[in-house]
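Assess the record.
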Amino acid sequence: TSVARDPETVKPYLGRDQLRLYTLIWNRFLASQMTPAVYDSVTVDISAGEYGFRATASTLRFPGYLSVYQDSPAEEEEGREGTLPPLEQGQALELKELLPEQHFTQPPPRYTEASLVKMLEEKNIGRPSTYAPIIETILRRNYVERQNKQFVPTELGFIVVDLLKEYFPELMEVEFTATLEEDLDRVEEGQADWQQVVGEFYRPFSASLARAQSEVEKVEIHPEQAGKDCPQCGRPLLVRSGRFGKFLACSGFPDCRYTESVNEDTGVTCPRCGKPVVALRTRKGRRFYGCQGYPECDFRSWNLPTGKLCPLCQSPLVRRTSRGRQYLACSSKDCSFREEEHPDA
C-alpha cells in the first residue's frame, strides 16, 4: 500500500474496527520513519543539614514521533517528571517540612505480553512469528496464568522449570537458543551443513533425554481440600485447575461429576452495593473482578477495585500497575485522577 493513503482517505471504504486497525498500523509506520522525541532534563541536588534531596524534571522540547504515535498514553505520562522553577547553583531554599519515609526494594515487575516479547527480541530468542505461539503455549499448558495483564507462574510451571534446569541445563541457557538460531541461519545461507548442525545438537540432547526418561518419576500435583463436602454425594470437594482456572470438583469423580466455580474473594466490597467483590475469569482465561451480587449488581472491572471512590468524580478507584509500580486510578474513562500507591513502611 502507500503511506499517502491516510486513514481519512480510506475511511469511507472501511468498517469501524477495520478503520481503527488501519489507523494504528498507519500511525505506527509513520512514527517509525520520524525522528525521536527530545526532552530537556534537569536534576537538582539539595542539601538540608545531614539530609540530601534530589529533584528531577524533564520537559518535552521536540515531540518528534510522539506527535503521531505513543505506545501507551498512561506510561508516556508517567515517564515525564514534574516541572521545576528556575534555580541557581548555591541558591538558599526554605525547608518547610521533612517527612521521613522508608522505602523497601521492589522486586522486578512480572512479565506482560509486551515485556515478554521485548525480552525475547533482546535475547534473540525465536522469531516474530513464534512469539504468539510461545505465549499461547505457556497459557494453554497452565505454566502461567494471567493476573492484571501479568504472567504469574503456577505450581506446575515451577515444577517444569526445575526439572528442565536439572536435566537439560544447556538448553535452559539463554545463549543456547540464540546460538542455534544463528547456526540455522548459516544453514539457510549455505554456510553450514545442516546434518552437522543438527548432529551437534541432537547427540548430547538425546543422551540427556534418555537420562531424564529413566530418572524422572511421574509428577502429580495433588489437589487441595476445599474444606466442604459435595452437596450431591457428601464426599469431600477438591480444588482442581482447569482451562479457565481453578474450580471445585467432587473427589468421587467419575461416579459423581459435581463441579462448581471458585470465586476468589478479593477482600474488597462493591462500591455500588457493598457486597464482596470476587475474582472471575472470562472464557479465554482473562482475569477480571465483579460483584458477588450479580445480576442484581452488574459492577465489573478489569482492574482490582480498592473499595474507595475517586475524590474528583466519585467513581470507583482501581489499582493499576505500570513499570513495576502500583498506583490508584479512577475507573471512569472521563476522569484523569491518578495517585501513586506507596507501600507501608
Observations:
- The first helix runs from residue 7 to 10.
